[in-house]
Amino acid sequence: DGGITQSPKYLFRKEGQNVTLSCEQNLNHDAMYWYRQDPGQGLRLIYYSQIVNDFQKGDIAEGYSVSREKKESFPLTVTSAQKNPTAFYLCASSSGGWPEAFFGQGTRLTVV
Amino acid sequence: AQSVAQPEDQVNVAEGNPLTVKCTYSVSGNPYLFWYVQYPNRGLQFLLKYITGDNLVKGSYGFEAEFNKSQTSFHLKKPSALVSDSALYFCAVRVSSGNTPLVFGKGTRLSVIA
To answer: What is the pLDDT of residue A2?
Structure first.
């Protein structure tokens, strides 16, 4: 089946640790995105990549890092510099031929 | 800069009644507009989009939306609500040129009461 796979579904992090969230797509989409969802705040853009080996900061990039070494993969690292990382993280992808974005099922990150 | 406003945090409607979820937008240039739905602890599911052409767009599960350029609105509608429509709804916008990110509103929680 074609789609976007995010893993893990639930993730627990101790304060001071870095964690990496996985996002893989087999839709052959050029662009990929990471959003953060908090209650009452909608979706906020963290990073996006329109092509392999290139990415841009979104509105809330501080404390996060990404890489785009392969077209199908766009991992997100939540670093210890992110002061309030507890949130629901959503990965999405899109292509030039389809203006809508397709979303994965999300990863819920909790700091313990 | 692009932005989306969903003025209602919560909309309550009785089952069988029509529903409307409001959305207004701001964008430089021609907009692409979208509605998504989210169920608890799930990703966003695409409902419908406006690209160009007919101002009334029909989408999944009986939903439709009306694009109004003069009012910069894109309200989501359904003639007869179902309890299963209860969910979180997001409106989104992007400019029509390039593969740019979607900008989302804060979401509206729809509760359909039996």
So the answer is: 67
